[in-house]
């Protein structure tokens, strides 16, 4: 009972700080309009940026994949779980982003979290003198990967190239990794990747890019941050997720073939995990075609137009008490600050039929709680206008959130 009382006390403390997290149950496919706990809502909180999660072609491809390969893979990739669909997807992904990498090869994972753990622990395996330089706003998976590696970890300030350059110059490590998000998941801004890559090439360091929120949405053909910034280097190690803009699930790492072979041989999150259901890999072949083709181009253009709608001087956001953080991506944070006020704002929107994410510590720093608006190509301009009106009214009056 003492153990349970300790946990109860910890939960009570979280509740007193407005930090308790609660799940809601969705009864419909992922989309702009969903049924949640029996209520019809307009959702601005998913990462389905291109609106592909319920695409008819993906549903048919998943059904076809299950008909060909069954459901489960049955084992890890290293035993018997590496199915033809996995091999075909890896070849397709290597081709898709390969123009930005030398001798490109790809490796698929169950989740982006696992992929990041694999990259960092795999590239530093057996080298206790390795050093990792981690961006201060990195995703938890990158932070945890650095911790698990047992390498020396140095955190550099957000987008501070001068600080990182000095740290790299002072390092005597033979193995150096600079690790960063491309699109920062809670702020929506972009890392200065060209300058980071130049530093890595100058100092002999790997640049590990987590492009979870850029893959599919950035670049003319959706090839992510690599295409957006026109990057190309053998020093790049690229991670893209397949459950956000790609609409399905999983993740992949693309890099020089020697890097990928190293991960296959050394990365425990890859070696000791059952492979993803091959039907998902089969469906993702269709997803990549959609991202790359004319439909993907149109959806990215529509998404960009929705982001621009927020900036419109006549009908866009006009906030006074709150602050919209600068972002040209689908992630549009509204900074409020106080935990309780953030929760009240989210609840007020929910009562109006608008579902917006409420983000609090430890996901963000204390005092920076926010509404995290995520836009999707599945949204219409009228739906975004409805959100804008609600946010402007709440910010102006404050009566529903104070």
According to DSSP, the number of beta strands is: 13
Total helices: the number is: 15
Low-pLDDT residue spans: none
Radius of gyration: 22 Å
Instruction: State the fourth-level CATH superfamily of the largest domain.
Output: Type I PLP-dependent aspartate aminotransferase-like (Major domain)
Mean pLDDT across residues:
96
Shape annotation:
globular
**Which percent range describes the beta-strand content?**
15-25%
Can you walk through the features of this model?
A hairpin with a 6-residue loop joins strand 10 and strand 11. Helices cover about 45% and strands about 15% of the residues. The chain is of the alpha/beta class and about 400 residues long. It folds into 2 domains: about 130 residues, Aspartate Aminotransferase, domain 1; about 240 residues, Aspartate Aminotransferase, domain 2. The protein is built from 15 helices and 13 strands.
């Amino acid at each position: 009972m003492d153990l349970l009382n300790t946990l109860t006390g910890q939960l009570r403390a979280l509740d007193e700080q407005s930090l308790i997290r609660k799940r809601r149950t969705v009864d419909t496919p992922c989309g702009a309009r969903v049924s949640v706990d029996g209520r019809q809502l307009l959702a601005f909180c998913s990462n389905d940026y291109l609106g592909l999660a319920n695409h008819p072609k993906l549903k048919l491809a998943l059904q076809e994949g299950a008909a060909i390969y069954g459901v489960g893979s049955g084992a890890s990739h290293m035993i018997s779980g590496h199915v033809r669909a996995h091999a075909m997807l890896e070849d397709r992904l290597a081709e898709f982003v390969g123009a930005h990498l030398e001798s490109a090869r790809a490796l698929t994972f169950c989740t982006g979290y696992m992929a990041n753990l694999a990259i960092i622990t795999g590239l530093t395996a057996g080298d206790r003198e390795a050093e990792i330089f981690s961006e201060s706003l990195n995703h938890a998976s990158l932070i945890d990967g650095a911790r698990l590696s047992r390498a020396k970890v140095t955190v550099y300030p957000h987008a501070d190239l001068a600080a990182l350059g000095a740290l790299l110059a002072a390092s005597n490590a033979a193995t150096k990794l600079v690790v960063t998000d491309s699109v920062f998941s809670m702020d929506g801004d972009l890392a200065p990747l060209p300058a980071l890559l130049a530093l890595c090439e100058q100092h002999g360091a790997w640049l590990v890019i987590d492009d979870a929120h850029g893959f599919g949405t950035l670049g003319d053909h959706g090839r992510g941050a690599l295409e957006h910034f026109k990057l190309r280097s053998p020093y790049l190690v690229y991670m893209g997720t397949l459950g956000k803009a790609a609409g399905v699930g999983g993740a992949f790492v693309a890099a020089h073939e020697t890097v990928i072979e190293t991960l296959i041989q050394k990365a425990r999150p890859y070696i000791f995990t059952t492979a993803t259901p091959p039907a998902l890999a089969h469906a993702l072949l269709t997803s990549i075609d959609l991202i790359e083709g004319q439909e993907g181009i149109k959806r990215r253009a529509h998404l960009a137009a929705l982001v621009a709608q927020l900036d419109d001087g006549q009908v866009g956001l006009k906030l006074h008490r709150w602050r919209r953080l600068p972002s040209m991506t689908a992630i549009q944070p509204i900074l409020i600050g106080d935990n309780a006020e953030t929760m009240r704002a989210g609840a007020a929107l929910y009562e109006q039929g608008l579902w917006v994410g409420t983000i609090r510590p430890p996901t963000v720093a204390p005092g920076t709680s926010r509404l995290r608006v995520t836009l999707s190509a599945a949204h219409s301009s009228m739906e975004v206008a409805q959100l804008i009106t609600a946010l402007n009214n709440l910010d102006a009056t404050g009566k529903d959130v104070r």
